[in-house]
Amino acid sequence: MSTLERGQKELEDIETIRFVTGTLLEISAERIKHLREKFEKNQLFYSEINDLYSLVKWNAARRDELAQAIPPRDRKISIAVTSNSRFYGSLNRHLLDAFSKHIDAHENRSFMVIGSVGQRLMEATPHKRRCVYVSFAGDQPTQSEVRHLLSQLESYREILVYHPQFVNVFLQDVGVLDMTHSTPLQADAADISYLFEPELPRILSFFETRVRYLLFQRAMLESELARTAARLTTMSRAEERASTQMAEARRSLHREQQTFDSLSLLESIAGTLKWRVATKNNL
To answer: Which pLDDT belongs to residue 117?
Structure first.
């Protein structure tokens, strides 16, 4: 293959990469718009449900009614939510770095990693044997998958979920959700008395099932939003790099073409001169 053919093939490859990254960029931009609207639509509702759950649990503990709704539990677990697919930049790795530090700081605790990418990354660390690994069919679990997972977590008194946190389109962080509200309320809550209807244990029993489900789904939605934002940024950078490389490849191909044309012209001139000399000698 000549230099020109190699240059043309390289340019075609870069143009294909740019087309793919551009397409993924457009898909991510459209998806993040949909996810952000969905995330912000019920943000106040989830925040109030979260606070209410904490308040109900605190009151049940203060009135010694906690054991009537929740069997005694001593086990604790922390969960890291990663993805099954890639193209999310360093988001999964940053989350697992924070999760690994959490593992180092806690001995008497169980650990779970959700997502095949997280499993591959954790198996390359000293913590691989301390974690249980779970993968959903996709990055976003179905309702049945969530219910099955939560049924496995019923025996845990404290559940912390490490998940990608959406800050803005250009910045994602690591969020930590306390699904069981094991952290005590602020002191000012102690001065407020509440009447509960129906009975407090029944209310708390409902919160221990339905509200956990809602809070976990909320964390998964924010994780998907953060991952989509990370993919948007990654694809934008990839498209910029592809555009830069494509411009350089075109310049290189143009130089090669000029060199080829110059050599062809020199060969033609040399052939003409040679023919003239041979013709002159034959005269």
So the answer is: 93
